[in-house]
Design goal:
- By secondary structure, this protein is an alpha+beta fold.
- It has 2 domains: about 65-150, Phosphorylase Kinase, domain 1 (2-Layer Sandwich), CATH 3.30.200.20; about 155-345, Orthogonal Bundle (Transferase(Phosphotransferase), domain 1), CATH 1.10.510.10.
- The chain has 12 helices and 10 strands.
- The protein has helices at about 1-50, 65-75, 110-125, 155-160, 170-190, 240-245, 250-270, 275-285, 290-295, 305-315, 330-345, 355-380, and strands at about 65, 80-85, 85-95, 100-105, 135-140, 145-150, 205, 215, 225, 230-235.
- Strands 1-5-6-4-3-2 form a 6-stranded mixed β-sheet, with helices on both faces. It has a two-stranded antiparallel ribbon with strand order 7-8. A two-stranded antiparallel sheet has the order 9-10.
- Helix 5 runs antiparallel to helix 7 (about 250-270) and helix 10 packs antiparallel against helix 11 (about 330-345).
- The structure holds adenosine-5'-triphosphate.
- Adenosine-5'-triphosphate binds near residues 82, 84, 132 and 217.
- The site of adenosine-5'-triphosphate has 20 residues, from strand 2 and strand 4.
Length: about 375
């Protein structure tokens, strides 16, 4: 009898425990479901309605302008800033105040039409201090225009390669590298859904009046031409991930590759279409080889230990196996560390005579240019 009584007690306890377990499962399951539904609602809201800024505040909606507004603001399209593959870009002074840049998409460009819709819907919801924000658009009689915040210091490519520009200091270059990294980080890790840029290059990095860098032109990637024919590949020659060429699959790691190229541009001021990778590969044959390809204008003006560290980050970004390349978050962390060390002034030569190092770098650079000119002669 007592044995039976025990069995009943055990049965009731097991039943109770099971009941409690199932009830908590239902309770927590419901909570999890509600939370997910809430997150999804927030994400959708970000995609379709008023965009959010990175600090969570709501941004103004995109402004729709008429062709007449823009005609007035650009003095009848006479204030040209430059010509891109999608059409001309004009500086516009708006009647309500403020200066903007207007990109007029060539009306004969079928691709421009398609990309226009992509960019308007994409950019309308993407806002970050390191992205060139879209502030408005214009659709008028089949003509499409995109209106961006004005970047008074132009492109990084112009700053690095134009003789008329002043030399970018090492400190500015470190800040630019970090700004670009943060812009890409927002695209890859902050945007919902994530955005792959597909055409990262120094011409698509623009600088504001405080020399802070912003990433431009996402959603506008174009097909690259090889020998006058469309290759079917998106991006720009010199920046395209070789794995993308062989697999036709563009991933975030292809953006990381292009960013690695931009980092080397910052270090060397050699354009990727002027054999940058050949110099990088030659220099990587010797330890500290980056000294040999350092921008001549930086010799004696920058901390070589920091330049070597940045080159090491760039090398990782260019790893031939995409999954071995770092994520953009890791790249930002690494650049931030270099920048902090720079600020603290802790990257020193431990008693080395700096003038000796400078002379040595100059010698190495001469050797390298001799090597590459011999190589050019052989390949001719
Ligand atoms: N928001 C802006 N503020 C100031 N200048 C700009 C702005 N956007 C573009 N520009 C300038 O206008 C010119 C053309 O830019 P665009 O982005 O159309 O072409 P690109 O990036 O140089 O070349 P591609 O179209 O082949 O990628 C460049 O000189 C660029 O610096």
């Amino acid at each position: 009898m007592a044995h039976r009584g025990n069995l009943v007690i055990v049965g009731i306890s097991v039943g109770l425990a099971l009941g409690i377990f199932i009830a908590s499962l239902v309770f927590f399951g419901l909570r999890w479901y509600k939370k997910r539904a809430h997150l999804r609602r927030c994400a959708n809201e970000r995609c379709t309605t008023t965009p959010m800024s990175p600090d969570g505040t709501r941004m103004a909606k995109l402004q729709a302008l008429t062709r007449v507004d823009i005609q007035k603001a650009t003095q009848n399209f006479t204030t040209i800033l430059g010509q891109g593959s999608f059409g001309p870009v004009y500086k516009a002074t708006m009647a309500i105040g403020g200066v903007v840049a207007v990109k007029v998409l060539a009306s004969n460009s079928k691709q421009g039409e398609k990309e226009f819709q992509t960019e308007v819907s994409l950019l309308g919801r993407l806002h970050h201090r390191n992205l060139v924000n879209l502030v408005g658009y214009c659709v008028d009689k089949g003509q499409h225009m995109l209106i961006y915040e004005f970047m008074s210091n132009g492109s990084l490519a112009r700053l690095l390669y134009s003789q008329e520009e002043r030399v970018l200091s090492w400190e500015e270059r470190l800040q630019i590298a970090l700004d670009i990294s943060h812009g890409i980080e927002y695209l890859h890790d902050g945007a919902v859904p994530p955005v792959i840029h597909r055409d990262l290059k120094s011409a698509n990095i623009l600088l504001d009046r405080s020399m802070r860098a912003k990433v431009a032109d996402f959603g506008l990637s174009k097909e690259e031409e090889f020998e006058g024919r469309n290759s079917g590949l998106k991006g720009t020659y010199g920046y395209i991930d070789p794995t993308y060429i062989s697999t036709n699959k563009f991933t975030m790691k292809s953006d990381i590759y292009s960013f690695g190229i931009i980092l080397f541009e910052l270090i060397t001021a050699i354009h990727p279409q002027q054999n940058l990778m050949e110099y990088v590969n030659l220099a990587s044959m010797s330890p500290d080889g980056v000294d040999e390809i350092l921008d001549k204008r930086l010799i004696g003006e920058c901390n070589i230990v920091e330049a070597r560290s940045l080159a090491a980050v760039a090398h990782k970004c260019l790893h031939k196996t995409p999954r071995k390349r770092p994520s953009i978050g890791e790249v930002s962390q690494a650049i931030l560390k270099i920048k902090q060390r720079h600020k603290e002034g802790t990257t020193s030569f431990a008693g080395e005579d700096i003038s000796g190092v400078v002379n040595w770098i100059e010698l190495q650079q001469m050797e390298l240019s001799k090597m590459s000119s011999v190589k050019e002669k052989i390949t001719e």
